[in-house]
Amino acid sequence: MVAPNTNEVPTIYDRKSEVKAFDDTKEGVKGLVDAGITEVPRIFYQPPEPDDHYSINITSSDSQAIQFSIPVIDLEGLGSPAKRKEIVAKVGEASETWGFFQIENHGISAGVLEEIRDGVRGFYEQDTRVKKELYTRNHFRPVIYHSNFDLYTAPATNWRDSFMCYMAPNPPKPEDLPEVCRDILVEYSTQVMKLGKLLFELLSEALGLKPSHLLDIDCSEGLQVIGHYYPDCPQPELTLGTSKHADSDFLTILLQDHIGGLQVLHHNKWIDVPPVPGALVVNIGDLLQLISNDRFRSVEHRVLANRAGPRISVASFFITGLLPSARLYGPIKELLSEENPPKYREITVKEYYSHFNKKGLDGTSALTYFNV
User: Fold this and answer.
1) For the chain (length 372 residues), average pLDDT per consecutive 10?
2) Nearest residue to 250 (alpha-carbon basis) of 218, 295, 205, 208
3) Which end of the chain is more exposed for a tag (fewer CB within 10 A), N or C?
4) Where is the Fe2OG dioxygenase domain (predicted)?
């Protein structure tokens, strides 16, 4: 990430008022691009990364990148006990070493994947007046559309707009969903829920537990679907599509388009997660790292800004978020021993999520707050 030239740009400015002015337009980053801007506004400037391992970028154009490759796991053949055991082993290894992997033959058709991508694109490219009706920072609205959930607390604004809705356990009324992508949102969510339950079974087995263990403690109860839109950026070297962070859920299933830009921090280097046609990206969230007592890893990742956009992605988060629930989550007792004592205290999902939202994408881990 290249820092802006501070000799040309004032180092002190009224960020608060500029952020509010941006938010008040209710048009997001796409509104800036539609207005024809040629320079990135100051609120989007990312602070330079410290001169340490985090500053190393490994992309597909770097010769070192071939040393690492995100695991791609074929789920075909789960009906065979021998094949299932092999797949469980691969899922477990990827979850322990990478925290990220891609899956093929996952059961969601190419047509459905294409339709949900087109639906998200259609939402952002519809008439601005229609979108503005959904623009809000009220977390309890059935559909939330805005730019940057942590806009007022983050050190830098991300070059990204988002809309989100909880599709389980209490889905919105169909008429509350955006008309342009209503039907496919419902269909895609149904299929992602089915896939998520399968993955939780495989993850349970990888932990040496019965297949239903993670399902029995409601890891798959909640589903939040987020459609991200990363517009063309005139100066991608100055900003990020999404800042470095780890996910605030149990598990994430991500559909990305052909443009790329997603990177994972692995062995202190940024590694590309290249788009694989028909594949879905899966990553471990903080809550699964917590209940696995660090056996599975919730890994930091980011999205680069680019000139090749707009980039579309659809993230499905398995989390109940701010919904009230008294269930406590802590390290799974079957995984603990004298040699492996609990590293985290028991918490509710709401407690974790409230802390994560307050903290925002500030580049630090939300999990350390809950250490024993």
Assistant:
1) 48 86 97 97 86 38 55 97 98 98 98 98 96 93 95 95 96 95 98 98 98 97 97 97 95 97 95 96 98 97 94 96 85 97 95 87 86 94
2) 218
3) C
4) 219-321
Burial class (CB in 10 A: 0-12, 13-18, 19+), 173: exposed
Q: How far apart are CA 358 and CA 276, in angstroms?
A: 34
**Segments making up each domain of the chain, as ranges:** 16-370
Top-level class of domain 16-370 = mainly beta
Please say whether the beta carbons of 316 and 254 come within 8 A: yes
pTM score, whole prediction = 0.91
- What gap in Å lies between CA 225 and CA 314, rounded to an integer? 7
The strand order across the sheet containing 144-146 reads 72-74, 100-104, 280-284, 251-256, 311-318, 223-230, 161-168, 144-146
Q: Which residue has the tokens 């900003």?
A: 239
CA distance 270 to 266: 6
